[in-house]
User: Which sequence fits this backbone?
């Protein structure tokens, strides 16, 4: 890697008699990469966040709570703590009148026939409870941020690769020029 002096703001864009064509090309590559990084990152993040939030909003509209009943006694002992839950089989009636069964989290030790709220989709299949609007915003921001950072990394990685190739080419050309200079002066490189 070549020696690098103190950093000067916008040094690639200044007029300089020693500035090479490759310096100008590198400046445009860096500018283009940063522009793509910002645009692609923001666009991908915004698109992903919007998609997640719309999907979760659709779930809130389409999924409905249905009254179900335990078809078997829930394992464990009935306790005062309401935060503990165990899996047990629950039965409910779908929108078309057909009977369905599935497993849901219930209070331990609940008796057969205990009422349980089950969330179902339009076809009567059991689903999880939909996310609230606040939870949907948090999930959307998280997914959007992750997507934005991931997509933004691609132009940066491409820029680093191109700059590395340009640097190797510059160093090779510099080596050739030094060899020519030494040959003119009568010295051998080695």
Assistant:
């Amino acid at each position: 890697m070549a020696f690098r002096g103190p950093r000067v703001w916008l040094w690639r864009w200044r007029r300089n008699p020693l500035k090479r064509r490759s310096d100008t090309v590198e400046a445009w590559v860096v500018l283009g990469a940063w522009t793509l990084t910002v645009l692609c990152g923001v666009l991908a993040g915004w698109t992903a966040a919007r998609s997640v939030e719309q999907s979760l909003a659709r779930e809130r509209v389409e999924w409905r709570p249905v009254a179900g009943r335990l078809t078997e006694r829930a394992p464990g002992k009935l306790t005062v703590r309401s935060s503990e839950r165990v899996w047990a089989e629950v039965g409910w009636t779908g929108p078309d009148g057909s009977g369905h069964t599935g497993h849901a989290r219930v209070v331990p030790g609940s008796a057969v026939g205990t009422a349980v709220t089950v969330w179902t989709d339009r076809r009567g299949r059991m689903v999880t409870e939909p996310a609230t609007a606040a939870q949907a915003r948090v999930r959307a921001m998280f997914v959007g941020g992750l997507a934005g950072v991931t997509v933004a990394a691609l132009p940066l990685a491409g820029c680093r690769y191109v700059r590395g190739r340009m640097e190797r080419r510059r160093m090779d050309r510099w080596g050739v020029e030094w060899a020519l200079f030494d040959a003119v002066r009568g010295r051998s490189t080695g």
Q: What stands out?
A: The chain is about 50% helix and 15% strand. Helices lie at 21-62, 133-185. The radius of gyration is 32 Å. The chain has a mean pLDDT of 88.
